Amino acid sequence: MLHDHDDFAQLGNRVIEGWYNLHRLHSSLGYRSPADYEAALLA
């Protein structure tokens, strides 16, 4: 439950670090997500 600004900020940071940064496309990775890029390296 979100009780104050700090709770909301922590939730936002978890979403960004836990999902967004792993799935957004990066031009330096050939417009692939870090998760896709890493999977291709390990394959």
Descriptive overview:
With 43 residues, this protein is mainly alpha-helical. The protein contains two helices and no strands. It is elongated.
Characterize this entry briefly.
The protein has 43 residues and is mainly alpha-helical. The protein has helices spanning 5-23, 34-42.
The total count of helices amounts to 2
Number of E strands: 0
Largest sheet: none
Low-confidence stretches: none
Mean pLDDT: 88
Structural class: mainly alpha
Task: Spell out the helices and strands N to C.
Answer: HH
Percent helix, as a range, is 55-70%
Oligomeric state, counting identical vs distinct chains: single chain
Shape: elongated
> Could you tell me how far the N terminus lies from the C terminus, measured between alpha carbons in angstroms?
40 Å
Strand content: under 5%
Radius of gyration of CA atoms, rounded to a whole number = 14 Å
Features:
elongated; mainly alpha; 43 residues; 2 helices; 65% helix
Write the layout of secondary structure elements.
Layout: H1 5-23, H2 34-42
